[in-house]
Please model this.
Amino acid sequence: MGHRETLSPDYAGLVKFLVEPFLESPESLRVDCERSPSKPKVWIRIAFNDPDKGRVFGRGGRNIQAIRTVLEAAAKAAGESIYMDIYGERSGDRGDRGDRGDRGDRPSGNRSSENKPSRANRPRPSAPKPSSRSSRSH
Model:
């Protein structure tokens, strides 16, 4: 066997496979894949309708983190590094705005870690209390 050429994964197809099940309107998904000509880097930009953002991100960002993990594993197997940006598609003339992982404009119906008290604000357990057993004998 001669020179073995490394095949790069079909990132756009993989993103569609992973993201479309979360979308109410799968046809709204747009995936752009850009490769660096000089380095083994790939940038993926995805866009979909804003109402689907909560389902794609998932509670606490679990879904989007799982998607990123799968993409990173595929890229690592191909000797590449990957970066993913997520944009919301909006109707009208306002255009797209990248959120780059910001989840502050999530639909309010989603619970997120922002609603939970931070670890610093939680009450700390007090010192152990003496045993509540009585020293009475019967």
Summary: The first helix runs from residue 11 to 19.
